[in-house]
Each structure stands twice: as structure tokens, then as C-alpha cells.
Design brief:
438 residues, 16 helices, globular, alpha/beta, 8-stranded parallel barrel
Length: 438
């Protein structure tokens, strides 16, 4: 029985199509730079927003109308599994992602929660086998329940730390059972409200201890997924320990964890940190830790994580440019960590939203490929920094220059020093032409 009877299988119909249930730019088998769009983009459904999200916000209860809403918790969880795979099939999306409590209800005890999770995992495994769909990543929700009021790995309560460790252990076992390509660590409450009552050193040390335990246990059980950390500023903690890519990278390096982790970069988290999405991707890329992305966008007029479906072509182009320059996402993918707007409460809106996001990333991929093929930005950057390829600039880059040699050189310079325009407006105009030509 279909849970989305009014939605047909979505096909590529190309530009100009008036069919709302059709892709205008995402053609899975179209080859771009030697790989198909499907291989480049590796789209994934975010289980929590798509099937668990109710449309609630801080000022109102949920508005979403779902056929499974009236069912008991475990039956609701089973219905959501059916909905997940039907949506994936109709949209031709190969991957999905989930937190443990997204797919199975919490029980009165940890043992009961694990039992519920085992029931749903068996169902997920059966559907994956019959459909060929895969798990991009799973993770543990260590932030929603009141027990995590003071954090999980950074809690001041050792019992909470132990509970968190047990939950992660189970998550790793589930990941192995379902063949997850990655496992994500997201520190929803790993931070502090005030230094007045916080032992920052102990909290950071304990968080590192927990991550080392996870690395060791994954090795012990033979779970070879890529480990990812997802930087997130602000919400819900005023001072998050995983504020942005650079902060998280420094933490990993300080605690000897860098070789075990890459980054899962979210667009809306980047902007909440005061960065652009492409900035965060660039920082991860040049440090060799770009692993996967959460594809969404925020509302620049609102100061929280609105998790909108991505439709900004400028952003998707520059994101895909970084990903192409990275050689792709490897085992990672493009996960739609995005939710329909509160006013978009019907089932069909879930499909319209994913189609919009998939088309936006397909178009971004094509524009980014043109930037790469024609070396548009490469040539601009190479020309701008050409002074470091010869003479004193080459000495600086090679390490041959010293303060004494640079002083001697500077004393002979004609004054004033002549600079050249960065031509930024011209570059942006060129970028616009490329984006709207594909």
C-alpha cells in the first residue's frame, strides 16, 4: 500500500517542463567531468526532518499532516520505514541518514530503547536488501532527552557520560549491521553556558576520551565507516566546542584524532558561525578533512538554524566547486538536512522540496564543472599571486628568504608600492554568466 499515492515516480524531463513532479536539471545518468551526476552528488534523505519533523517551531505546534500520525510509537516507526523507502524509490535517491531516535522510539529504559531499535533495524535491513538503497550515515541523538541538559560527552555527570558511551556503542553496531558508509558525531549540547560553573579542560578531555573509545571500538568490531564530525555554532549552547571547521580541526589535532575523522559540513551551520558555506568547505578541503555535506540553507534575516531546502544557485555552485576541487566526497554525500516550511504541510510538499534541492545541486554541479574545465577561477588566482612564483616571492615560498634578506630587498623598492585591482565585481559577473548559462 502506497503512503504517497498521489506522487508518481519522478523522472528527468529537462528545462521547460511544467510537470512539478519532474527534474528539470538533475539527470542521474548525465556525465559531468567523467562521472554521472548520481555518482558526483550521492544524494541522501534526512530521516529526521522528512519523516519525523512535525512543522513545529518555538511559537507553534506541528502542522504536518502525515498518514502515520495516529499510530502507536512502534507502529509509527514501522510506517516511517515504509515511507522512507517509497520516497527514495520515487525520487531515485540512493542514500538515507538517521539518528537512532528518529527510526525507533525511546523506551522506559536503555535496554528497551535498544530492543525497539533492533526491531526497526531489522526492518530497515530488509528494505535495503530489496531496494538496493544504502545508509550514508547514522548517528546517536545525544541532545534531545532531558538527561543531556548539561551535555553528553562533556556532561558534568559521569552517569550521563556512561549512558552516552553506551548509546554510541550501539550506534556503531547498528552502522556495521546496515553497512553505513559513514558515522557522524554531532555535538548538539557539547558546549557550555557560562565559564562560572564550567571545567572546560575536563569537558574537552572527556569529549576526546569518548571519541578515542569510539575509534577503538569500531576497530574492534570491524566497522570501517568513515568517521565524521559536524561543526555547529550557537544553537543550542552559547559556546559550542565544535563551533566551526577550524575550531573542530584544532580540537582533533590537539587530541591526536585528526587521522580518524573528516568533517560533515552543513551550509546553515556555516552561516550561523559567521562564515559562508564555501569558506567552511575550503578550510576542510585544504586541510584534507572534507568528508560529506549537509545540504540546506538558512534565512539570513533569522538568527537560527532554519534548515531550508537549498535553492540558492550561487551557493550550490561554489559548494560543488569546492567538492570537485576536492576530488569528490569519497564515501560522503549530499544529505538534505532540510525541512519543508511550516506552511508546506502536505505529503506532496516533501517531494517538491527534494526536487528543488536536487535540481539546484545538479545545476550547481554543471556550473562548477565549467569553472573547473575552463580554469576560470584558477587563472584568476594564479595571476593574482604570480609575484610569488619568481624573484623575492619565490624565495619567500621556498623558505630561502630571511628577515635580513627581505629588509635588504624592501629598502631598494621604489615607493609607493604598486598594487593591482582584485576585479571582484568583474569576477562575480563572470560567475553569474556561467551559472545562468548551464
Amino acid at each position: 500500500m502506497s503512503l504517497f499515492p498521489n506522487v508518481p515516480k519522478v523522472q528527468y524531463e529537462g528545462r521547460g517542463s511544467k510537470n512539478p513532479f519532474a527534474f528539470k536539471h538533475y539527470n542521474p545518468q548525465e556525465v559531468v567531468l567523467g562521472k554521472t551526476m548520481e555518482e558526483h552528488l550521492r544524494f541522501a534523505v534526512a530521516y529526521w526532518h522528512t519523516f519525523v519533523g512535525s512543522g513545529s517551531d518555538p511559537f507553534g505546534v506541528g502542522t504536518a499532516v502525515r498518514s502515520w500520525d495516529s499510530l502507536s510509537p512502534l507502529d509509527k516507526a514501522k510506517a516511517r520505514v515504509e515511507a522512507n523507502f517509497e520516497l527514495m524509490e520515487k525520487l531515485n535517491i540512493p542514500f538515507y541518514c538517521f539518528h537512532d531516535v528518529d527510526v525507533a522510539p525511546e523506551g522506559a529504559t536503555l535496554a528497551e530503547s535498544f530492543k525497539n531499535l533492533d526491531t526497526i533495524v531489522a526492518l530497515l535491513k530488509d528494505h535495503m536488501k530489496s531496494t538496493g538503497k544504502k545508509l550514508l550515515w547514522n548517528t546517536a541523538n545525544l541532545f534531545t532527552n532531558p538527561r543531556f541538559v548539561h551535555g553528553a560527552g562533556t556532561s558534568n555527570n559521569a552517569d550521563v557520560f556512561a549512558y552516552s558511551a553506551a548509546t554510541i556503542k550501539k550506534g556503531l553496531e547498528v552502522g556495521k549491521e546496515l553497512g553505513a558508509e559513514n558515522y557522524v558525531f554531532w555535538g548538539g549540547r557539547e558546549g557550555y553556558e557560562s565559564l562560572l560553573n564550567t571545567d572546560m579542560k575536563l569537558e574537552l578531555d572527556n569529549l576526546a576520551r569518548l571519541l578515542h573509545m569510539a575509534v577503538d571500538y569500531a576497530r574492534e568490531i570491524g566497522f570501517d565507516a568513515q568517521f565524521l564530525i559536524e561543526p555547529k555554532p550557537k544553537e543550542p549552547t552559547k559556546h559550542q566546542y565544535d563551533f566551526d571547521t577550524a575550531t573542530t580541526l584544532a580540537f582533533l589535532q590537539n587530541y591526536g584524532l585528526k587521522e580518524h575523522f573528516k568533517m560533515n559540513i552543513e551550509a546553515n551551520h556555516a552561516t550561523l558561525a559567521g562564515h559562508t558555506f564555501e569558506h567552511e568547505l575550503r578550510v576542510a578541503r585544504i586541510n584534507g578533512v572534507l568528508g560529506s555535506i549537509d545540504a540546506n540553507q538558512g534565512d539570513m534575516l533569522l538568527g537560527w538554524d532554519t534548515d531550508e531546502f537549498p535553492t540558492d544557485l550561487y551557493s550550490t555552485t561554489l559548494a560543488m566547486y569546492e567538492i570537485l576541487k576536492n576530488g569528490g566526497l569519497g564515501r560522503g554525500g549530499v544529505n538534505f538536512d532540510a525541512k519543508v516550511r511550516r506552511s508546506s504541510f502536505e505529503d506532496e510538499d516533501l517531494f517538491y522540496a527534494h526536487i528543488a534541492g536536487m535540481d539546484a545541486y545538479a545545476r550547481g554541479l554543471k556550473a562548477a564543472a565549467k569553472l573547473v574545465e575552463e580554469r576560470v577561477l584558477d587563472e584568476i588566482v594564479e595571476n593574482r599571486y604570480r609575484s610569488f612564483r619568481e624573484g623575492i616571492g619565490a624565495d619567500i615560498v621556498s623558505g630561502k628568504a630571511t628577515l635580513k634578506s627581505l629588509e635588504a630587498y624592501a629598502l631598494q623598492l621604489n615607493q609607493p608600492i604598486k598594487n593591482e585591482s582584485g576585479r571582484l565585481e568583474q569576477i562575480r559577473a563572470t560567475l553569474n554568466e556561467i551559472i545562468f548559462s548551464v
